[in-house]
Amino acid sequence: MTSPTTRPSAICARGVVKNFGDTRALDGLDLEVSAGSIHGLLGPNGAGKSTAVGVLATLLTPDAGTAEVAGVDVRRGQEVRHHIGLVGQHSAVDEILGGRQNLVMFGRLSGLRKAAAQRRAEELLHTFGLVEAAERPVATYSGGMRRRLDIAAGLILEPDVLFLDEPTTGLDPRGRIDVWALITGIAARGTTVLLTTQHLEEADQLADRISIMKAGRIIAEGAPDALKRQHGGDRVEITVPRDLDRLPGSFVITDEAAGVITYPAPDGARDLIEVVRLLDAAGITPEDISLRRPTLDEVFLALTEKEES
């Protein structure tokens, strides 16, 4: 994988402010997304994720700061729109029309000639596995199929940057996995993806880098594993049957009733060996022992709660 620092920027925002009356939705947003990457934008409700996407996708005008997408200032809306695709939280396709008719319609609305729109629709139907359902009304599609069609519509102009706002909302696990595979394939073909989501597992699976928002600004950023190391830390988790009072001082009791204890493990497997040695010296035989990395959920909660304290 190419290092983000060696890639050109597909999205660059500096000090972006957006107000809605007395409410400041974006409070000096700084965001940089490398070309060809999948970048996750996370945050609690009201953090400003959708507002950020709105500004970058030219749906909203920033009140202050600068932002460029595909090298074009977002205030030059019409020019930016030639470079982007946008898939919102809610389906934008017509349920009465079939999949092929929808894609041709989106192509025509995007300025393609009829023949070009038909060719592009056919390509996307094959890419997204919708050929057999192409003539059926979208109302008969499953949630996963409908979401695939939504994403296909967002790619009708082969955009440089694709904005996906909560792309798997309402999907079952199978549908989510299918959409994840599509997103990975889109990025592999060179399209930059900015993904907003409240499913932290989704960001962990897909994103090259993650930005965590709180109150309209970025409070942490990095690769998923780097964020876990910086803000969580590996630990050994042990279940012991009894004798908690005989534990050496470095252990922390996390669930006394269940006999669960932890030990910090910045050196990974080396610390796991040390834990076994300490327990053996104390005459304690563990029932279970494992090396555990913090989840992105734990990092997210730690960061957002820290900001509130």
Structure, described:
- The protein has ten helices and 14 strands.
- The chain has 309 residues and is α/β, with parallel strands linked by helices.
- Helices cover 35% and strands 27% of the residues.
- It has helices at 49-56, 77-81, 99-109, 114-127, 143-154, 173-188, 200-206, 224-231, 269-281, 296-308; strands at 9-20, 23-34, 38-42, 64-69, 72-73, 84-87, 161-165, 192-196, 209-214, 217-222, 235-239, 252-255, 260-264, 288-292.
- The chain has two domains: 4-229, Rossmann fold; 234-292, no CATH class.
- Strand 9 (209-214) and strand 10 (217-222) form a beta hairpin.
- Helix 3 crosses helix 4, helix 5 runs parallel beside helix 6 and helix 8 (224-231) crosses helix 10 (296-308).
- Residues 1-5 have low confidence and may be disordered.
- The radius of gyration is 24 Å and the shape is elongated.
- The strands form three sheets. A six-stranded mixed β-sheet has the order 6-7-8-3-9-10, with helices on both faces. Strands 2-1-4-5 form a four-stranded antiparallel β-sheet.
- Pfam families: ABC_tran, DrrA1-3_C.
- GO terms for molecular function: ATP binding; ATP hydrolysis activity.
- Belongs to the ABC transporter superfamily. Drug exporter-1 (DrugE1) (TC 3.A.1.105) family.
- Keywords: Antibiotic resistance, ATP-binding, Cell membrane, Membrane, Nucleotide-binding, Translocase, Transport.
- Its main location: membrane.
